[in-house]
Design brief:
mainly alpha, 9 helices, 7 strands, binds zinc ion
Length: 257
Amino acid sequence: MYHAIAADPNEATRELSVTPEAFAAQMEIVGELGHTPITTAQLAASWRSGRPLPERPVLVTFDDGYEGVHRHALPVLAKHGFAATLFVSTGWLRGPHDNGHALDTMLDWPQVRELAAEGVEIGGHSHTHPQLDQLDDDALRRELILCKEIVTDQLGTVPASFAYPYGYSSRRVREKVRETGYAQALAVGNGLARRRQGPYALLRVTVRRGTDAEEFRRLIEGRAIARNFARDRAFTKGYAMVRRARQVRRKAIRSRV
Ligand SMILES: [Zn+2]
């Protein structure tokens, strides 16, 4: 799981961003180790149908929709012929649905369409990136449906995969994601994706700014993940706090006007 690919990210996304050079080096490692990147939809479809997966399958995923995915990641993916999945928070992308709450420079829709045309699967990641398990049923439904409708409208295809913001889900969230029409969804956690996790709770591991080549090798081979996970939990809390602080500041500014 990647977020931003950026040389000079904003403070809020810094820890979870990866430099363009590190991303290129990591994709070299994926190739060297003989892994075959596939999309989220391909993984789930293989598991549903029983059709064999390619040798050493791996998912390369990007959450939120940062502009560097187009600028820096796409040329590297294209060079290797690697598949990937981008999960977009539709209210954060630049363009007609932009709600002004994004943490850094985001993709616009022509860039998302270009990524899709190059074979990147585009999945949903909610509209405003809330903690979905904290929402009531109506708000939850709105987040899921709005995201799906905007992606469908902008791309002409219905998104099939979803990633939970902050990796958070609950049984109720997973059921609503399924009811909305998503066929599979990705979480974040202490392990690699396995069929037994079920299609709505597949795990991912985090690649971050401090992930060096050695740790990256261990992560994609499923070794030493517990240590990575402990930092994930601390970070996810910090990320949520940054967002809350920004919202409080915005409200304070609005109430002064
Ligand atoms: Zn996210």
